[in-house]
Automatic annotation (TrEMBL):
This is ATP-dependent DNA helicase RecG. Pfam families: DEAD (PF00270), Helicase_C (PF00271), RecG_dom3_C (PF19833), tRNA_anti-codon (PF01336). Residues 297-470 form the Helicase ATP-binding domain. Residues 493-672 form the Helicase C-terminal domain. Residues 530-543 have a biased composition (Basic and acidic residues). It comes from Streptomyces hainanensis. Keywords: ATP-binding, DNA damage, DNA repair, DNA-binding, Helicase, Hydrolase, Nucleotide-binding.
Amino acid sequence: MVCNGSVTASQEPLAQPLGKVVGGTTAKVMAAHLDLHTVGDLLHHYPRRYAERGELTGLADLPLDEHVTVVAEIADARAHTFNRGRGARLEVTLTDGRGRLQLVFFGHRAVHHHEKVLLPGRRGMFAGKVSRFNRVLQLSHPAYELLDEESGDEAVAEFAGRPLPLYPACKQLESWRIAKSVAVVLDSLAATGWAGLADPLPVALRDGRGLLPLSEAFEKAHRPRGRAEIAQARSRLKWDEAFVLQVALARRRRVAAQQPAVPRRPAPGGLLEAFDAGLPFTLTDGQRRVSEEIFEDLARDHPMHRLLQGEVGSGKTLVALRAMLAVTDSGGQSALLAPTEVLAQQHHRSITEMLGGLAEGGMLGGAERGTRVALLTGSMGAQARRRALLEAVTGEAGVVIGTHALIEDVVRFHDLGFVVVDEQHRFGVEQRDALRGKGERPPHLLVMTATPIPRTVAMTVFGDLETSVLDQLPEGRSPIASHLVPARDKPHFLDRAWQRVREEVAAGHQAYVVCPRIGDPATGEAADEPAGKSDPEGEERRPPLAVRDVAEQLSGGPLAGLRVEVLHGRLAPEAKDDVMRRFTAGEVDVLVATTVIEVGVNVPNATVMVIMDADRFGVSQLHQLRGRVGRGSAPGLCLLVSEAPEGGQARARLEAVAATTDGFELSRIDLEQRREGDVLGEAQSGGRSSLRMLAVIDDEELIAEARAEATALVDADPELAGAPELRAALDSLLDADREEFLEKG
């Protein structure tokens, strides 16, 4: 750590172990269940929200199976006995004026104790895990702290006079106990005058934007005297997160800009010109614009790092192919990484067909300036695999397409200059980096997606990814209508869905039916994990629907007489190829499949898709899946079948998918629901976040301002010699693993 005479890590009060301040037992619980280890960890564990006296928690929308803290009023309390008096149960009903929540305590001793204090009209904080019994939301044996005259004058004054912080908590440590520990920490630091506290924001930035000192921000975030103080604290603490992270990214961009890369420019009279001359259609304005952006990056002497976001069917593959041909013209090779064998094979077929004679370099009848397009997947035979490896290492193949097999150590390239990652949400940073490492110098990188994962959206907002957007569909592509089919509430809607499938087939078209699981023929049970997380809403849920079961039911029921086939990942490669070949040829009316068809499958005659248990899939998957229809001149139709209850998060997610075909908008919805993941770490798909106060979508403007400030600072002082406190904060944010991860980006 660079300190330059400033406070060292051992002197920094935020680095103190919690056990020294709040006590060993509490510190152990915080470490084990909340991942809080230091004073700084606890002070950055901000309240989830704040309650006022008289303000009650909305009880109707509490999430099932999550630990919550609610502020509510007791409406009713009744004791019951059962088993001829041997058992006892106390049922306490809480209300917020509209919704209701039931507390349940079992045992004579518990009933006797709680019914004396849990009296109608009293208010309190109640904490526990939300469950549902007989359609009633319930907390079983919750912890609670009452907040009225029985709590004593001090508690009354505290609750009446200040907003009450409600913290992310757990079964072992309720919100109010966390608040008491925070108070102990704040009092301890205040007693020393916050001696040694390093403030990461430069004084000029802090004063210029009217931001609070860090110590005052902590005090007002955890013990505010009013809503105005909360707003002041949040503004300051958001700047901490945005600015420190932007400094980290600015330094990364500076290093990346200094990395050497071979400029790749198309040659006059080369492959790219020949390919463009043979196109049977005109490029869209969007395809031309995005191609020029990519060509400009490829011509530079440092690596491109660009995201290509485009609607399903907008022509991303064509744009990527033109860039790959430009690299081939320059003497380099390109690798196209696809997440599944089906997609890799589809890319190989379509690119080979688009190139025609240009893909037959060195072969009889091939174009004079042609190249080869090699395919490398895990299930290839030994002879085909050896040929692909040889074409890659000798440079005969200017384009090498493959799955994870491309990453294996045995794969070598003659001159890898460009890496294209298709559907980047299906790959981790480690996998992308392994392929990029196969070039003598860092190759240029293009990642493509229709719906970026939350982390990608976050990195785009933070300015770490240059972004190109294809928002224009080529001529001849038809719109896709999407509708929610609430199978539990309106079963006749599902009957109508199967009628629509029959109507489309009768009109000469084809259909997909997608299920979350394959199903085990030996046991009749769903054997695979579902494709997406299910939402814990409603009653206990049946297992996800399985391909084999649904295909059998449809063939003998609503789709009887139609040619129904199944496709899933456990089929042998030859069987998968055979099914797809016959479906493409129109010999199959309805394909019942898993998400193996999620990307890359291109059958223009398929016009309708029915997604069963749609709430069990993620937003990105749903958007990708429906992109398989509407690929020809006939309009596409996507029906999202779900038993998710009305008003829940899963139902809201499906309604959002049905309402828009804008992939970036759907990604933002996904980001709002799942958060952005660890922007600097490996948790790419949501969950744990390195951002505690900052909301990527809501705070875009602040993030942009922080980027400008950070870039100016790093340009003037790359080593942060004049900002030791900031450097210390950066060292804390970027542990060794995260710094390595960030370098791979």
